[in-house]
């Protein structure tokens, strides 16, 4: 079962952060599987991906499961560390696609802004909130990372989540999952982490 200890959070963050990095020889071997569970038989997880194909993922020894819990944009305050997937907007700046509020113990994990594949041209920014204000169309935050700043608008209705407990039994047919995985040269995939939706809250990343 997913642990809410600092170590447990850090392991989960590492799985996410490793997949945000666009460079390096291993980058092409990393895949993010998003979809719904078809079955979990032993250590083989079958997922109907959002692209419509079926993916079989071998879960590594000691694999872990975690979930997400619904949060509110009003929970975001200066000093918080967040992960925001966003897209450039026509008016300039970025507009959020989803927001993950990290627990305090994980502040600084994977700091930076990286290419992301939630949608074409999207990015993931892990950064500290410098300020958060309510705007006409929702909210806007200015985040800082590695000496840089980025302003991101958060339209009303944008999914905002934080981490939550989950169990293997939550990985059942129809459940929504996000599985950061490694793809071998022969096309087989493996993972040490499954993020599963519970209580009506699905992984938005």
What is this entry, summarized?
With 205 residues, the protein is mostly beta strands. It contains one helix and twelve strands; from the N terminus they run αββββββββββββ. It is elongated.
Distance between the termini: 21 Å
- Number of H- or I-type helical stretches: 1
List low-pLDDT spans.
1-11, 17-28
What's the number of extended β-strand segments? 12
Shape: elongated
Overall mean pLDDT stands at 86
Write the layout of secondary structure elements.
Elements: H1 6-18, E1 30-41, E2 44-49, E3 54-70, E4 81-88, E5 94-101, E6 112-115, E7 123-135, E8 138-145, E9 148-155, E10 160-164, E11 176-183, E12 189-196
Parallel strand pairs: 3-12, 5-9, 5-10
Antiparallel strand pairs: 1-2, 1-11, 2-3, 3-10, 4-5, 4-7, 6-7, 7-8, 8-9, 11-12
Give your account of this protein's structure.
By secondary structure, this protein is mostly beta strands. The chain is built from 1 helix and 12 strands; from the N terminus they run αββββββββββββ. Strands 1, 2, 3, 4, 5, 6, 7, 8, 9, 10, 11 and 12 form a 12-stranded mixed sheet that branches. The model is unreliable at 1-11 and 17-28 (pLDDT under 50).
């Amino acid at each position: 079962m997913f642990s809410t200890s600092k170590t447990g959070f850090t392991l989960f963050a590492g799985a996410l952060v490793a997949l945000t990095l666009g460079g390096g020889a291993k980058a092409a071997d990393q895949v993010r599987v998003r979809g719904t569970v078809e079955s979990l038989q032993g250590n083989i997880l079958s997922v109907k991906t959002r692209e419509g194909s079926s993916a079989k993922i071998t879960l590594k020894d000691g694999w872990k499961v975690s979930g997400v819990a619904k949060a509110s944009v009003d929970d975001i305050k200066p000093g918080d560390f967040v992960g925001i997937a966003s897209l450039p907007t026509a008016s300039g700046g970025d507009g959020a696609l989803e927001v993950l509020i990290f627990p305090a113990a994980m502040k600084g994990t994977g700091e930076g802004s990286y290419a992301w594949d939630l949608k074409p041209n999207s990015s993931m920014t892990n950064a500290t909130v410098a300020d958060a204000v309510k705007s006409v169309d929702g909210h806007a935050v200015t985040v800082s990372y590695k000496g840089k700043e980025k302003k991101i608008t958060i339209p009303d209705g944008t999914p905002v989540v934080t981490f939550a407990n989950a169990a293997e039994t939550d990985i059942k047919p129809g459940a929504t999952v996000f599985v950061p995985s490694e793809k071998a040269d022969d096309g087989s995939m493996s993972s040490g982490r499954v993020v599963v939706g519970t209580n009506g809250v699905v992984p938005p990343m």
